[in-house]
Specification:
By secondary structure, the chain is of the alpha/beta class. It has a 7-stranded mixed β-sheet, sandwiched between helices. A 5-stranded parallel β-sheet has the order 2-1-3-4-5, with helices on both faces. Helix 5 links the parallel strand 3 and strand 4. The protein is globular and about 60 Å long.
């Protein structure tokens, strides 16, 4: 082929490419950033759900209520236009790590990490698969977000609480039982200095004295209550992270045996025997998590999606547990409760 022939071929090839692009633009077939993931995906999207506790059974609250509601709202039907891979670690961190790695190998499009331990496992397993988490109170302080507005990296999600809510729980505890002076604060992780100072300052205003006790695992629960007993704690504030939630019935029973009034975050803690709970509506957080997943499946980058905070809160009073201890809950608190367990 001579020089002129090659030039003619290149010219005609260029015309063909431009014609194809023009046609694609006309009929909307050029892939944009918002639907690139959907175009490249073969078959329905696949979402992995990673949970620290056991699969729901018997009378346990169903943790998937909010997720199922969110799926319906966004037009997803499991098994038809979306695949859900659920993994339950039964409270075993080693199992959680293996399950997170398994979800990555399965090439899920998004991982929903329910709680701080699943988030750690998912982050250790991948820095590329998008992760939506329902976890924590201060993602920036915890180190998994650059900011709430722009988390960066491959993680976004919703916090289950935010600074100040634990102080609100102390206020509710003091309103219910004004004679309380000493409170044991049960935490799974070592509380940072900022959190302790904030809590101590608020507690002093309520004439309360706090003792922080770490419970990193099930084996530490009895030791924690021994420490609380020695400190003559009158109340228990349990920060509802994975270990605490997974062993909520045991914690409630131990507190009752020591005649300690107890408060935590979520209604499921009250259903397990805690006297009071005040915190985010977990079903609402589950529903909203699907909104973030939907955006990611349509091409959004998790690092560009703002981390959302809870907007709905529930106050639950376990009147049955209070009566078993011979305690009376003020009528003013009962009137404000979203749910009273009798």
């Amino acid at each position: 082929m001579g020089v002129q022939e090659r030039v003619d071929a290149m010219w005609h090839g260029s015309l063909l490419v431009r014609a194809l692009i023009a046609t694609s633009l006309l009929f909307g077939t050029v892939t944009t950033s918002s639907d690139a993931g959907a175009q490249a995906r073969a078959g329905p999207p696949k979402v992995g759900i990673l949970s620290f506790g056991p699969a729901p059974a018997g009378t346990d609250p169903d943790p998937d209520i909010g997720v199922r509601q969110g799926l319906r709202e966004f037009g997803y039907v499991e098994g038809r236009n979306i695949v859900i891979e659920r993994r339950y670690a039964d409270g075993m961190p080693d199992k959680l790590a293996a399950q997170a790695a398994e979800l990555v190998r399965m090439k899920v499009d998004v991982i929903l990490a329910s709680g701080p331990a699943p988030l750690v496992a998912a982050r250790n397993a991948t820095n590329s698969v998008p992760i939506v988490t329902i976890s924590g109170s201060d993602p920036v302080r915890a180190g998994w977000a650059q900011s709430l507005a722009h988390p960066g990296g491959n993680v976004t999600g919703l916090t289950v609480t935010f600074p100040g809510l634990d102080l609100k729980r102390l206020e509710i505890l003091k309103e219910a039982f004004p004679g309380i002076r000493r409170v044991a604060v049960l935490t799974e992780f070592r509380p940072d200095q900022g959190f302790k100072e904030e809590m101590d300052t608020g507690a002093r205003q309520l004439e309360l004295e706090l003792q922080f006790i770490e419970v990193p695992g099930e084996d530490e629960i009895d030791r924690a209550f021994t420490i609380a007993r020695q400190a003559r704690a009158q109340a228990l504030l349990a920060v509802a992270t994975n270990v605490v939630v997974n062993h909520r019935s045991r914690l409630a029973a131990l507190a009752a045996a020591d005649r300690m009034v107890s408060i935590s975050q979520f209604p499921l803690m009250a259903q397990a025997g805690f006297l009071l709970t005040y915190g985010a509506d977990l079903d609402d957080l589950g529903r909203r998590s699907i909104g973030q997943i939907d955006k990611i499946l349509k091409g959004a980058r998790p690092g560009d999606l703002p981390i959302e905070r809870p907007t709905k809160f529930q106050l639950t009073v376990n009147l049955k547990a209070a009566k078993a201890l011979g305690l009376t809950i003020p009528q003013s608190l009962l009137a404000r409760a979203d749910e009273v367990l009798r």
